[in-house]
Amino acid sequence: MARITIDRLRHSYVSQPGKPEDWALKEMSLEWEDGGAYALLGPSGCGKTTLLNLISGLLRPTEGRILFDERDVSSVSPEERNIAQVFQFPVIYDTMTVYDNLAFPLRNRGVAPSEIDRRVREIGEMLDLGGSLTNRASGLTADGKQKISLGRGLVRSDVNVIMFDEPLTVIDPHLKWVLRSKLKELHHRVRRTMIYVTHDQTEALTFADKVVVMNNGEVVQVGTPIELFERPAHTFVGHFIGSPGMNVLPVALENGGISFMGSRIDAIEAARVDAAGGGRLELGVRPEFVSFAGTGGLPVEIGKVTDAGRFRIVEARHQDHLIRVLVPEGQEVPTGSAALGFEPTHTHLYRDGWLVA
Ligand SMILES: Nc1ncnc2c1ncn2[C@@H]1O[C@H](COP(=O)(O)OP(=O)(O)OP(=O)(O)O)[C@@H](O)[C@H]1O
């Protein structure tokens, strides 16, 4: 296993990149600790596969370096990097038994048969495949096959990192959560460095201790699931993570305070804002931290109310702006006119999309 360092990495598919949009991957530096569980999360086209291919060696970076521990592997072949990859579609040998599929990478490397047997049985048990080791792999369901793909990475002791590229895409929805929890449990048991690539926030947040959120070829935040929820470093993270996402409202510095469409917002101290800083100012507050207030709150008109099980999502409008409020079960939802309050510790200010510290 290895610590992975991404050092001022940039990548372009254009031969002579000039404009910012020529870069599929904008400059980034990251440090992935040995044995950590990471997710790479972002919408389609944000550069996840490009970064994965740079780490696995299928692509050579235009600029910057990738290090496994102290070794610069930027120009090293994929085989030499010792990476196990689990793709969207399981890669297995249908005609072989489950046992032989798991043993294959070890036989290839000339490992002693007794050691192969020990490793295959151990991994088979971990993946709940112990009872089907002698069965043909072709008879397994998609999730069983995907477990073999994963098992083939886990049996090897020389693997630097296991990378998952949208591994649950072909898994039945009702089995997804089973495999998702299994992956998390496996990471706890084996403590290998794992990188999980997905556009699905639930998958990323359940699997990873730390999530790298990407947008437009750029890393917008690296944080624990709680950090991403409580302190989104960019309005994109606020929108993309959470269901529903963070409310983002245009605000201005007026008469020594923060105001939204002329209404003073006390949840943010104006003293935090550099008046000379310029740029577009926005307030971000998650629906979980908006509540109905008495007099003095932000006046709104209550619109649609959606029942979402343990809470309701209330759509409130102030002038043309929609503000979502999450109301826990059992709590009353007003009708008609109401007033909203924002919880100060969870109300953030953004300048040109980025959190003002
Ligand atoms: N081989 C290529 N040649 C030229 N441009 C590419 C190539 N591969 C990717 N790109 C571009 O690089 C950008 C990042 O794409 P990438 O596939 O890395 O994103 P992604 O987040 O993995 O998206 P998806 O989830 O859809 O695969 C996109 O604008 C894409 O069009």
UniProtKB/TrEMBL annotation:
One of its GO terms (cellular component) is ATP-binding cassette (ABC) transporter complex, substrate-binding subunit-containing. It comes from the Bacteria. PROSITE patterns: ABC_TRANSPORTER_2. Pfam families: ABC_tran, OB_MalK. InterPro entries: AAA+_ATPase (IPR003593), ABC_transporter-like_ATP-bd (IPR003439), ABC_transpr_FbpC (IPR015853), ABC_transpr_MalK/UgpC-like (IPR047641), Mo/tungstate-bd_C_term_dom (IPR008995), NA-bd_OB-fold (IPR012340), OB_MalK-like (IPR040582), P-loop_NTPase (IPR027417). This is Glycerol transport system ATP-binding protein. The keyword Transport applies. Belongs to the ABC transporter superfamily.
